[in-house]
Amino acid sequence: MLGLIRSMLGGAHVDALTPADVHESLSRGALHLVDVREAGEWQQMRIAGAVHVPLSRLAQQLDRLPADKPIVFYCLSGRRSASAISLCRRFGMMHARHMGGGLSEWRAAGLPVQT
User: Fold this and answer.
1) Domain 4-108, second-level architecture
2) What is the greatest pairwise CA distance in the chain?
């Protein structure tokens, strides 16, 4: 079972997954991981298997996100990915989650990145 952390954004609760949970689910192919950082950040470092959709363009690309598995967003710290969840919920995408602590927590946990 995925370990859920509760975080706050604009008064609304947003479910966040731990990096360990995301890593385990990603390795099983049980989710789609979406990096919402900007292009320069993506080019420097990313999580293998993630797709890149910057938060600044997410609203225009929501219909292109796959719907066959849960979507998990991530960024550097978790702030932009939590914003992505709020955006998704406004458009009725209630199954999306985000990785709490973002890429910073992922790396702190010793999980692999691509450069």
Assistant:
1) 3-Layer(aba) Sandwich (3.40)
2) 36
Residue 114's beta-bridge partner residues?
Answer: 46
Identity of the amino acid at 110: G
Return the bridge partners of 4, or none. 17
Mean pLDDT per segment of 10 residues, for the chain of length 115 residues?
36 73 96 97 96 96 89 96 93 89 97 96
| Cα–Cα distance, 57 to 33 (Å, whole number) | 16
pTM attached to this predicted model:
0.86
Strand partners, 34: 51, 73
Residue 63 tokens read as: 């219909």
